[in-house]
Queue: 2 jobs
Job 1
Amino acid sequence: MFILGMESSCDETSAAVVEMENGVRQIRSNIVASQIETHRLYGGVVPEIASRAHIEAVSGIVYEALDTAGIGVKDLGAVAVTAFPGLIGALLVGVNFAKSLAYSRKLPLVAVNHIHGHVAAAYLSNPDLEPPFLALVVSGGHTSIYRVESYTDFMEIGGTRDDAAGEAFDKIGRVIGLPYPGGAALDKLAYEGDARAIAFPSPALGKETLDLSFSGIKTSALNYLNGMAQKGEEINRADVAASYTYQIVRAITQKAEAALVQTGMKTLVLAGGVAANTHLRASLEKMCARNRVALAMPERALCGDNGAMIAAAGYFEYLRGNFADTSLNASANDDGL
Ligand code: KG4
Ligand code: ZN
């Protein structure tokens, strides 16, 4: 069946057509309109501007997704939309469009948890992947470890107690003058620096927990940068990028490894925007090989927010019979509706 997947939780308006069937997981189209250029001016996502940009883009993006897939609305089997978590105004644009489309064309409507969507991107890139597995979701808004028992049942067993890893990358990227959002640029710059040059604190909390905290390393990096500026000393940006990335990647890898040992899971799925980070991918590959654990990652193009991942997650909600109706609302929170 063809599923339309819609995503508008943050600063990307996206729609995709994905064909899902027993043994078939095929992306027919995946159109992503990024608002990055608009928000770059402010150094971060401005919620009100994001909502307005979604409104302007949403209709065109949905029809472009259908055109690119070579199908019409009548060929769809269901409409899936991100309903939580995210920016409430931004989410409501996608939710209201999806509700209207589904109601007017009498199509089944499915509400999708954005985090489940990120994990479902791995199903598209790894056709044989199936639960149970451990999922590590690392994005601009989340850093969490889940036991994924089935396509629709997730249990959070660890994660950040404050900022997300993506937020921590973006913040320091911005302060050292990298283009917004700093994550991808910091990833590249880190190759040119010395990872041992600056001793930043580890974001990994004690051995008794699978939790992390990124506020300490963020403050420590800011203090370092301010201190250097006050002394009039020049900053080696590549060393900052390398040392900062090293600690973040090491801490996430340590907690993922501890979670694998604790749960006995034999497959790890890495998902979310920060899953595009090449240092993190390499570190997890090594750790998984050492533990004889299979590592499944979405291809880099499917790591960021996109409609295809929402369609894939929506398919499994559809199979469970988890349908929404015109009373569907959006929610900013993780715990949903
Ligand atoms: O999943 P996503 O598109 O949006 C959220 O749901 O948050 O993730 C966006 C985050 C941003 O913080 C961005 O800087 C980060 O993913 N990111 C990266 C890389 N590419 C994107 N962080 C580190 N290294 C990268 N290569
Ligand atoms: Zn996301």
Job 2
Amino acid sequence: MIDVRGLDVVFGKGADEVRAVRDVSFRVPEGATFGLVGESGSGKSTVLRALSGLNHDWTGQVVIAGQAQTPKRDKAFYKLVQMVFQDPYGSLHPRHTVDRILMEPLSIHGFGDAERRIEQVLGEVGLGPSFRFRYPHQLSGGQRQRVAVARALILEPRILLLDEPTSALDVSVQAEVLNLLQRLKQERGLTYILVSHDLSVVAHMCDELAVMNNGAVVEELSVERLKSHAPEHPYTRQLMVASLGYDRAAIDRFEDFGVEG
Ligand code: ADP
Ligand code: MG
């Protein structure tokens, strides 16, 4: 479903140049959930932004649903691929009701039966009709993220790119939203890329994962191997120690294993 070869993203020029993504390659079969993990700043969001069409400044090959992608995408692309961001407060317009937030993609893409689609998608994400005319500030964090998921699904895409979708939520609410995403994936036959800095989230959700450090993929492995504590790369093992033990001191001792320069 997704085939990425030699993806590079560079920000800035000269002394300010940041090679945020370096020669990243991976494939995601249809119906799979692929994890992208690494500490903050390792380039995970930049990969997703390139795939989703938000960043136009990349080089490499990106094939999605059999079609080679150019940096600029047409409207039809967004019926295939949608993104969900970490902070639903930032990504939902504060002065628009849930109804208007969900209506917007439908009008842009000229969908007719808006009424039915809005009610249906709200039900699917576990929000009743009473939520339809509320504003984001009248919702809890978990409810806001459900609205963000509803907005991503309303055009019936086949792929969701999930950028730390539960990192801003309380732990108890995180599990609810992750379970919702699992259920929606099964019901709709979706393909996911899930970005997280938390290996326990990835172990719960994914089949296969790539570990990023300093812009590069240092290791790709199955969740089985992760769970049997068999990652080979020292960076992955560092990440595991930090994730399992919630050990801030371990993260502070992290070494970089990415390419220099
Ligand atoms: P992650 O999502 O893994 O935390 P990001 O993809 O956000 O990492 O960032 C990777 C690197 O690219 C970081 O060094 C970040 O500062 C840099 N970066 C990201 N976006 C921009 C931008 N728009 N301009 C300049 N540098 C950026
Ligand atoms: Mg990020």
